[in-house]
User: Which sequence fits this backbone?
């Protein structure tokens, strides 16, 4: 029985952290869920979408995180329970509305789930969303394991309703994407009726208009709420302590670092010397609870990932109570015990711990590390990151690169967020030269495109995917058109949010719940904005290059070039080879002057391999998906394609 | 791997100390393209996927790692062992004569069998190629058409197509990419109409620098065009399009001195004149180092004739050149007569002046090796400084 519909209390299921969060929301009786895809958060919305019919939910992939938060807030204003999920960068996008929402307050329980990515395993930064809780004065919960992920998600709705404000549940990659046993609770049976009441007084936050003003009044209310939260957190079962009554060292931690720390204590066998205070409620910190534990010893270590969020907040509490609890020695980010960059792991915690406790434990002997690395090099081939075989981005970047080279004015491409962020690597022929936030490529281009006045004569291009186009490119494009910025935007339209797993977006005819939806036509949108629009299939390399050169040469205004070709992994394309490929060895020039391995040295589709013995190129039958593109780059017509019958 | 590095003497337009350069794409990039010496001849284009010509600019799309390659060996701007070439094609070492090695200098024009077309001058070039294609002396010809002002290389096999390519395009043309295409397609008697740098590059290719055992000269006739300079296409196009609608241009001409104008003929018979001093800033940097006005390594070379706009100057250099000219005359395709002594004098002094200017420039910039400098200075009859 699916964990989503299993209503037997106490039954265990092996759940991924994100599934546990979704299950928690179902147990809380969530009605509306919204989000924008982003690793490691996407499975939460996907999971809820699967039962949208059975559980009578409304689930959507919104255009961007700010809109997603607004959609969820609307449900809360109508006294429904709502959840909004995003990755850490999405919090920045949503934060504008979140600041206002926190001031205005919520009605039905409303939870924002943010999944951070310490170590930037699948992000272009390792930004932190915990600080938003303190900055916007709203509660922050951090699950330390999978069971907690479910339980906390459920309880967060209750807390939200109790204080009438939005609650943040913050997960990280290693919680969201790892799995563990989770005991189920019962699914909610409550039916809610949606109504937005606004007739009450403007100062009334429950049945009056939903506004952040008058600010003085609302801000005072909000601060009363957060004080109440601190009280509630004093008693929270999500804060736990293990260890002796008077430990030599007190470790305070949260989130996945709880698991790393437990393992480290165990590895060193210092259970008798070290106390472990694991916090699940990390903003506002419960002062009495902390005072109690800080009093037990004078050595405190704080274990957390990236920035010293806990550390700084604990230090403030310790300073305030210094008279009663005495002076403390803190170990953490500030003294360098714990790195401030990247993910943690048990080994890093062992290293810090053994130094403080002088256990003389060698975290990982360097000899062992070397042996391990050497042996892994033997079995694991040295492969850089690359686009999949048959990926339309490889073809697109090939043509963009060649167009810019031929144009010969040192033109460049502003990159954006998606698989095509790899345009800066050799698989994208090092074509993109900037990479920042969603939509920033077009925004930067809009700015670069106005610098002719100061002598800049380089052609300016931007790329974006179809999903990114809707997310944040549109305002930047409007800006560029309105200010007559001289740029060319290449939309890499692969018909889906490919990088995060093909979630639908507004350009498609289906929504998150699988229902038919009106598609928004990117070309028409751009035309309506006033841009010159061209559309091509990027698999036609020379045609694409030609059109692009022509567009770049236009001296005025915004040109939009839509390159339309489905992702090689898209459900429609999988297992559907268009061509059988083979290499005519007699024609192949290999390393001779006249080719010098263009296909395997430069184009580098993984479907092409170099036969060292024969000195000829070969097709890897297993990897090649038969897109046929490589046959048009071969100078010797040695790569033959034959239509699959 | 192609490791058959030839040991061609490095004493052409190459900086001293460059002997150990990569003699492939990297060398070409460093010594020619980055040094802004490229005249866009097209010799390196179409040999492989790396070099392309786009709107007058030769660019490398991707890096090629080969240590030796045809792109480098065929480029007229990298290094030229003039002695070696002269030995090969004329049986004697290079002597610095302003007109190069030649048999005779005549004047000529197209005869009746050719018909009329918008020839640049007397139509000598078109007449000879037309005749040679028609009679099977050549199986194809490398010519230069245009699209607007942009020169377009053509490989022509149908004699009638010669007429679509008449008249001079004054910006640098990647004409030799069409030669590379013809060779790739298996033609063996190719006629080439080319400017001096293009002719030099063709001579390099014909000297088989990579010692390919299976090499056979794929050309049947090389017609050189006189040339004092060519223009950088992009600024030239901009210059002209600021003044006239490029679509309406029917012909561009630079009549011989004393006229000091570029004439642009427009549809409807209109003509505008642009003083050459306004045009000269658009001349390619690479042209200012070129010491060859008359395409010295051709079979025959053709230019305009002072005082007679419907006639050409015709230099016959080789046996195969002389043979085709004679045949064309005999069969009624070409009219030939003697060159007046005064014109020959003028021609020699013009060619000598170009050599001198190039040598001075090269000296200033330190581009030529000391050895070649000395050779040109010592042997050129005209240079006296
Ligand atoms: C860039 C350039 C500069 C020149 N400068 C001089 C000069 O200073 N003094 C002088 O006496 N003559 C010069 N000429 C030569 C002259 O303009 C005529 O081409 C020549 O006299 C032949 O005349 P025609 O009537 O026989 O030509 P046509 O019968 O009209 O034939 C012209 C031929 O020139 C070829 N051609 C045209 N443009 C180019 C190009 N850019 N590159 C290669 N081939 C081309 C065409 O393929 C065509 O076959 C120059 C030519 C060019 C292209
Ligand atoms: S591009 Fe063509 S000629 Fe070159 S190595 Fe590949 S198959 Fe051979
Ligand atoms: S056809 Fe060529 S480019 Fe396409 S997947 Fe196969 S090897 Fe790669
Ligand atoms: S001509 Fe030969 S050496 Fe030069 S770039 Fe091409 S393959 Fe490389
Ligand atoms: S001069 Fe000719 S061969 Fe040399 S780089 Fe330029 S186009 Fe290539």
Assistant:
């Amino acid at each position: 029985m699916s964990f989503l519909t299993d209503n037997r209390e106490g039954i265990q299921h092996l759940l991924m952290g994100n599934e546990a969060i979704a299950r928690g929301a179902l147990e809380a009786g969530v009605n509306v869920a919204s989000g924008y895809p982003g690793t490691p958060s996407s499975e939460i919305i996907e999971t809820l979408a699967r039962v949208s019919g059975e559980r009578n939910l409304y689930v959507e992939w919104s255009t961007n995180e700010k809109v997603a938060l607004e959609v969820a807030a609307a449900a809360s204003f109508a006294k429904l329970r709502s959840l909004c999920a995003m990755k850490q960068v999405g919090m920045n996008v949503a934060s504008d509305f979140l600041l206002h929402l926190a001031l205005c307050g919520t009605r039905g329980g409303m939870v924002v789930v943010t999944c951070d990515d310490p170590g930037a395993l699948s992000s272009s930064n390792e930004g932190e969303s915990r600080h938003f809780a303190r900055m916007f004065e709203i509660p922050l919960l951090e699950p330390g394991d999978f069971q907690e992920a479910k339980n906390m998600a459920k309880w967060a709705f209750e807390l939200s309703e109790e204080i009438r404000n939005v609650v943040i549940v913050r997960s990280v990659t290693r919680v969201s994407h790892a799995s563990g046993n989770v005991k189920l609770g019962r699914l909610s049976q409550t039916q809610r009726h949606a109504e937005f009441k606004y007739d009450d007084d403007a100062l009334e936050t429950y049945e009056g208009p939903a506004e952040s003003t008058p600010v003085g009044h609302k801000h005072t209310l909000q601060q009363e709420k957060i004080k109440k939260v601190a009280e509630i957190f004093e008693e929270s079962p999500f804060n736990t302590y293990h260890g002796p009554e008077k430990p030599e060292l007190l470790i305070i931690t949260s989130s996945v670092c709880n698991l790393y720390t437990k393992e480290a204590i165990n590895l060193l066998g210092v259970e008798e010397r070290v106390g472990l205070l694991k916090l699940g409620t990390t903003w506002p910190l419960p002062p009495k609870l902390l005072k109690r534990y800080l009093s037990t010893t004078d050595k405190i270590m704080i274990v957390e990932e990236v920035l010293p969020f806990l550390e700084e907040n604990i230090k403030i509490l310790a300073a305030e109570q210094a008279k009663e609890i005495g002076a403390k020695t803190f170990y953490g980010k500030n003294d360098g015990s714990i790195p401030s960059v990247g993910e943690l792991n048990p080994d890093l915690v062992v290293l810090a711990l053994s130094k403080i406790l002088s256990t003389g434990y060698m975290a990982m002997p360097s000899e062992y590390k070397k042996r391990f690395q050497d042996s892994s090099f033997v079995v694991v081939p040295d492969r850089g990151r690359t686009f999949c075989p048959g990926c339309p981005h490889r073809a697109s970047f090939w043509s963009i690169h060649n167009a810019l080279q031929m144009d010969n004015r040192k033109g460049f491409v502003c990159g954006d967020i998606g698989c095509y962020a790899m345009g800066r690597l050799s698989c994208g022929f090092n074509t993109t030269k900037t990479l920042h936030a969603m939509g920033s490529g077009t925004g930067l281009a809009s700015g670069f495109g106005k610098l002719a006045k100061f002598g800049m004569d380089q052609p300016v291009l931007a790329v974006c995917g179809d999903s990114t186009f809707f997310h944040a490119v549109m305002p930047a494009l409007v800006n560029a058109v309105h200010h007559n910025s001289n740029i060319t935007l290449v939309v890499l339209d692969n018909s889906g949010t490919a990088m995060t797993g093909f979630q639908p977006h507004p350009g498609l005819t289906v929504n998150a719940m699988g229902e038919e939806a009106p598609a928004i036509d990117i070309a028409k949108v751009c035309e309506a904005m006033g841009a010159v629009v061209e559309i091509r299939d990027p698999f036609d390399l020379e045609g694409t290059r030609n059109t692009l050169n022509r567009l770049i040469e236009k001296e005025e205004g915004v040109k939009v070039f839509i390159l339309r070709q489905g992702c090689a992994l898209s459900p429609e394309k999988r297992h559907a080879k268009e061509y059988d490929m083979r290499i005519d060895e007699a024609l192949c020039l290999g390393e001779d002057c006249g080719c010098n391995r263009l296909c395997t040295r430069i184009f580098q589709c993984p479907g092409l391999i170099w036969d060292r013995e024969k000195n000829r190129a070969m097709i890897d039958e297993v990897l090649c998906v038969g897109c046929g593109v490589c046959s048009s780059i071969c100078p010797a017509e040695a790569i033959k394609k034959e239509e699959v019958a | 791997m192609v490791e058959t590095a030839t040991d061609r003497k490095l004493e052409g337009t190459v900086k001293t100390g460059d002997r150990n350069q990569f003699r492939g794409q990297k060398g070409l990039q460093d010594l020619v393209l980055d040094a802004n010496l490229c005249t866009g001849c097209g010799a390196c284009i179409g040999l492989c996927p790396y070099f392309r010509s786009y709107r007058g600019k030769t660019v490398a799309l991707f890096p090629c790692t080969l240590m030796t390659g045809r792109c480098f060996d065929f480029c007229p701007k990298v290094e030229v062992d003039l002695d070696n070439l002269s030995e090969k094609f004329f049986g004697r070492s290079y002597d610095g004569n302003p007109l190069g090695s030649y048999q005779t200098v005549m004047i000529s024009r197209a005869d009746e069998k050719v018909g009329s077309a918008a020839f640049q001058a007397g139509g000598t070039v078109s007449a000879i190629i037309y005749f040679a294609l028609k009679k099977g002396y050549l199986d194809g010809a490398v010519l230069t058409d245009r699209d607007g002002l942009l020169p377009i290389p053509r490989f022509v096999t149908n004699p009638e197509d010669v007429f679509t390519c008449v008249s001079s395009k004054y910006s640098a043309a990647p004409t030799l990419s069409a030669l590379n295409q013809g060779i790739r397609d298996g033609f063996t008697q190719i006629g080439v109409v080319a400017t001096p740098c293009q002719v030099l590059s063709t001579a390099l290719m014909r000297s088989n620098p990579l010692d390919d055992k299976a090499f056979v000269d794929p050309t049947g006739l090389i017609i050189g065009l006189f040339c004092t300079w060519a223009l950088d296409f992009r600024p030239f196009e901009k210059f002209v399009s600021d003044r006239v609608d490029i679509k309406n241009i029917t012909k561009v001409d630079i009549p011989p001195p004393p006229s000091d104008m570029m004439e642009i003929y427009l549809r409807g018979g209109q003509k505008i004149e642009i003083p050459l001093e306004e045009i000269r800033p658009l001349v390619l940097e690479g042209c200012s180092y070129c010491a060859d006005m008359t395409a010295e390594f051709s079979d025959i070379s053709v230019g305009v004739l002072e005082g007679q706009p419907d006639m050409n100057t015709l230099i016959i250099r080789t046996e195969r050149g002389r043979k085709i000219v004679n045949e064309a005359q005999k069969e009624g395709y070409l009219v030939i007569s003697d060159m007046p002594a005064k014109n020959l004098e003028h021609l020699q002094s013009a060619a000598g002046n170009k050599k001198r200017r190039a040598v001075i420039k090269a000296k200033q910039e330190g581009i030529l090796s000391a050895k070649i400098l000395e050779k040109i200075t010592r042997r050129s009859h005209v240079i006296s400084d």
Summary: Chain A touches chain B through 19 residues (CB under 8 Å).
